[in-house]
Amino acid sequence: MMRIINGSNEKIVGINIVMAQTFFTRLKGLMFHKSLKAGEGLLLRPCNMIHTFGMRFPLDVVFLSEEYEVLEIIENIKPNKMAPMIKEAVITLELPVGTVKNASIHKGDQLVLL
Fold this sequence. Notes:
The chain has helices at 23-28, 99-102; strands spanning 2-6, 11-20, 40-44, 59-64, 70-77, 91-95, 111-113. A hairpin with a 4-residue loop joins strand 1 (2-6) and strand 2 (11-20). The longest helix has 6 residues, at 23-28. The protein is mainly beta. 9% of the residues lie in helices and 37% in strands.
């Protein structure tokens, strides 16, 4: 597990972030979770598009470049939806709803993994 902060304002994005880098961990994602608690999240790499089919809860989703620059944000995406493909994205961060607002994440921000 890792921590992520918003390097643009030093706010904590998550303290229990799990990385999914294999085909199977990315495929499974958060589908069998009942919820995400504050501070938790899933970092999908490589990934430039997500869906919430089979999910039980909404998410905040942040699409990132290779350098962890925020390229696109989708707040409160509901279960059983498909997010658009963000061609430039290499990494996707799935977070509990409200995290984007609480960490003041904006396009162009630089996230930092610790």
